[in-house]
């Protein structure tokens, strides 16, 4: 799945993610966040190197349980899941060099 440009208000259930198979990049943030906007070129470029990786962008904020369940504090937060288990995360990346090692795990 290619790069996803906008954050979705509809979030998957945590149980669904925990039971998942394969590798998934979960990104938390909001479209209006300047840190999220600044990170997008690096994230998009890094994902071009990983065309088979599923990328899900989830809108986060007050009342959003999924972000709290992953203890997200700052945006954007990128979490790599493999078979439903977190194997790595990057917070507020600005360069491809910050994102690429996460995707290589």
UniProtKB/TrEMBL annotation:
The organism sits in which domain of life? Answer: Bacteria
> Which ranges carry the Thioredoxin domain?
1-105
InterPro entries given in the database record: Thioredoxin-like_sf, Thioredoxin_domain
UniProt xrefs under SUPFAM superfamilies: Thioredoxin-like
What's one Pfam family the UniProt record gives for this protein?
Answer: Thioredoxin
Return the protein name.
Thioredoxin family protein
Source species: Vogesella margarita
